[in-house]
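Lab notebook, design round three. We kept the backbone fixed and only want residue identities now. Task for the bench partner: fill in a sequence for the structure below.
Input structure tokens:
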């Protein structure tokens, strides 16, 4: 029987998710240490898999290697809070509500302004696409096609960020998508999209197409405020 440590590429992602979850859930407390040997032995993987996993977690600022100390877990205040995988792990941890609150605050600060800018900056094709997505969201809701509705919702909010013309807003797409993915996966909010929420999506799209920036801002804020109420 082959007793050599496993090195298949998928093992890196498995170990990454396992350690990331342990850190983000508090199972591995800040200030605690680990070694390459421990991880290799405990998880039955090769040294190269362990090294790569630790390297990625260090890049996220969850871990730091210190001479004569070892590999140490960092305080959450030092983590890269904009890393989508950190967001995912926190959404699966006892810190889920804190992560939701932080993301809702971020969305309320960014997306209404993104909608306002989209009404000023979006191309005609982007505005038309936004209206089309909002219409397909209505159809998916009426057909009880929850997966299609979720995918369209992701597209809608990503397009708002892109159409803002602000490249820094556009790069928040992965963060917003991770929030919406976690929201969908955990069944947060109503089981069926509320007609008011559907109308608000349509109204945001219409405001962007009509080049009404103040209206786009206000309607997007109303949409997000309503969504935030469903998370509490």
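Proposed sequence:
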């Amino acid at each position: 029987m082959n007793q050599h440590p496993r090195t298949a590429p998928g093992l890196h992602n498995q170990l990454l998710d396992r350690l990331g979850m342990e850190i983000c859930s508090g199972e591995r407390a800040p200030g605690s240490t680990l070694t390459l040997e421990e991880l290799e032995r405990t998880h039955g993987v090769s040294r190269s898999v362990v090294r790569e996993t630790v390297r990625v977690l260090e890049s996220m600022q969850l871990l730091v290697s210190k001479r004569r100390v070892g590999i140490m877990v960092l305080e959450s205040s030092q983590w890269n809070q904009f890393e989508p995988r950190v967001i995912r792990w926190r959404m699966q941890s006892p810190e889920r509500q804190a992560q939701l609150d932080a993301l809702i605050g971020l969305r309320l600060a960014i997306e209404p302004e993104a909608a306002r800018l989209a009404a000023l900056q979006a191309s005609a094709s982007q505005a038309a696409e936004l209206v089309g997505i909002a219409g397909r969201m209505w159809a998916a809701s009426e057909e009880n096609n929850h997966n299609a509705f979720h995918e369209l919702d992701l597209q809608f909010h990503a397009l708002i960020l892109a159409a803002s013309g602000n490249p820094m807003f556009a790069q928040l797409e992965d963060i917003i998508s991770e929030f919406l993915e976690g929201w969908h996966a955990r069944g947060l909010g109503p089981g069926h999209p509320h007609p008011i929420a559907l109308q608000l999506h349509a109204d945001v799209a219409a405001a962007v197409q009509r080049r009404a920036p103040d209206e786009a801002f206000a309607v997007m804020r109303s949409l997000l405020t309503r969504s935030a109420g469903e998370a509490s």
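Keep this in mind before ordering anything: Residues 1-8 have pLDDT under 50 and may be disordered.
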